[in-house]
Predict the 3D structure of the following.
Amino acid sequence: MPILKVNGQSHNVAVADDAPLLFVLRNDLKLNGPKFGCGLSQCGACTVLVDGQPVRSCVTSADSVAGQEITTLEGLGTTDKPSKLQQAFIDEQAAQCGYCLNGVIMRAKALLDTTPKPTEGEVRAALDGHLCRCGAHNRIVRAVLRASRD
């Protein structure tokens, strides 16, 4: 039974050794930020941070990250008090359907943690592996750059 440290809290979860972290987060811990998109690590909707590094939770077993610090979208801020990055996305109206935003925001968080003042090119490169069907790419880039300035 792995102990998962998620958003600062420890959770004992009784799951199979190969249970995808995404399913544990959504089904057992009721955290709905990470989304199931493709199940193949290609779209990025399921991205979470593990010890600060972006990880595709759909192809990562919960057992493999036991004891490490896992951060989901819910761990960044709340509806009443969003993080600076989340607020920048709101201010730039960088969401349409919002399905990709979990992964985009989590990857952007990892970028800003390592590169506090990224260039537009660095933002685009960091987010390149995240698929958005709505075409909100320019607003998303502006939101990340806004968060780096604010």
Q: What stands out?
A: Helices lie at 21-28, 84-91, 101-114, 120-127, 137-149. The chain has five helices and five strands.
